Amino acid sequence: MGKKEKIRRGYDELAETYAAKRSGSRREMVILDHFLDSLSEPTRILDAGCGQGTPVLRRLCERTTAVGLDFSREQLRLAAETVSPALLVQGDMTMLPFRDGVFEAVTAYRSVIHIPLTDHQTVLDEFARVLSPGGRVLLSESPMEFERTNTDWLDTDVKMTWSMAGAETTRKQLQNAGFRITAEWDAPEMGGEDDPKPPFFPARLDA
Ligand SMILES: C[S@@+](CC[C@H](N)C(=O)[O-])C[C@H]1O[C@@H](n2cnc3c(N)ncnc32)[C@H](O)[C@@H]1O
């Protein structure tokens, strides 16, 4: 079984536990609102790696026409119970099942960090492809490159892997994909005490 398939199955298996434990840090949601405030309306927005839908997709649904995409069927099943997006789609961020230029914005909270490092550029290229000219992206990353595996994540016996490209590589890859980074926000209260704090990159596609 490939790395990606293991992650997908892992998210299927721990869907209920992740849903129970996922709480939004206040700062994470302030960043999302700030990003949404900067968009012109009406906005069609893709939440890539939406998971079980709270708190991010839920907030998007309150303020935009939102489409949630995830490759885990169980995460999507839970999302369908709790949020009401325009559409929920099972698909892979490395090959988005959408036509070119159909969204005005893409968000990716805590999801690109599960993509194998060799595929990060592909994902950012896919985000650029499905955005209209001037389209916007907001994604969270890690400050530094590192890969990590936890064999008992959230005490579920499920093995989970993270592949973080780090801020420097992500900046370069966003630029390669045609984005101009407009700011860099952090959420200092996120993660454990010793965990590196994730930066959030808002960026704009050249019009
Ligand atoms: C840590 S969860 C984050 C979920 C949600 N964005 C949030 O903020 O709670 C990561 C999600 O990304 C999804 N994911 C990981 N790799 C993916 C891929 N290649 N394509 C689509 N979804 C993916 C997982 O299934 C999981 O639901």
From TrEMBL:
Region annotation Disordered: where it falls in the sequence: 185-207
Domain Methyltransferase type: 46-138
Any single biological process term in GO: methylation
InterPro entries named among the record's database cross-references: Methyltransf_11, SAM-dependent_MTases_sf
Entry EC no(s): 2.1.1.-
UniProt KW keywords: Methyltransferase, Transferase
Class of enzymatic activity (EC top level): transferase
GO molecular-function terms, A-Z: methyltransferase activity
Name of the protein described by the UniProt record: Class I SAM-dependent methyltransferase
Organism whose genome encodes this protein: Halocatena marina
